[in-house]
Amino acid sequence: MADPLLHVDAVTKRYTRGAFRREVTFSLEADFVVDGPSIVGVVGPNGSGKTTLFELITGSNQPSSGQVRVCGQNIHGVRYRDRDRLAIHYHQSYQVRAFKRTKPSFLLERARSAAPVVHLFDEPQFNTQDGYIGFMLDFFRRLRSDGRLVFLCVHPNEAWQLDILRESCERFIFVDKGRLSHAQDFAGLIRHPPVAAYLGWLAPAA
Predict the structure, then answer these.
(1) CA Rg, the chain, in Å?
(2) The domain spanning residue 51 has which CATH number?
């Protein structure tokens, strides 16, 4: 049986403060599998842990516990310069985030993929003019048709941004205070009361 494209396996990330008595200031918990090519929508309030989740998936942030496996390969055990052959994070205006180095690279293994398998778009700046949105949606679909996994994180403040999620994404993750909720379709997402509260006036009528 082939390995899933992505397995976020009982991953936690805890941020602490205090030199002697450590106090947890924020924690993220994630545990899910995406078996094959897909476009996954990610939403949630600012500061909820969405970018931290993306950094953990790409290996630029070290988990406190658990593993992230891309096509069966633990991304935190892969050489730093090879990690974007497994998963790549485009942050806002498509600037790739830097890796946090914890071990010498020669102690790590090489990526077994020649090109990124997982593409994470973190609040991309959609231009509403000149057909740019259609171009980007076609790009996401081409990645999927090429066997890739796409994550699209949007922080909606206009109704058209919800339309992008509805039209392009097959499943959804809602991140709130470091906890993940999953929905298999857009209708299931907006039926989730915390999502409706987060969207406010943008929430579509049930």
Answers:
(1) 17
(2) 3.40.50.300
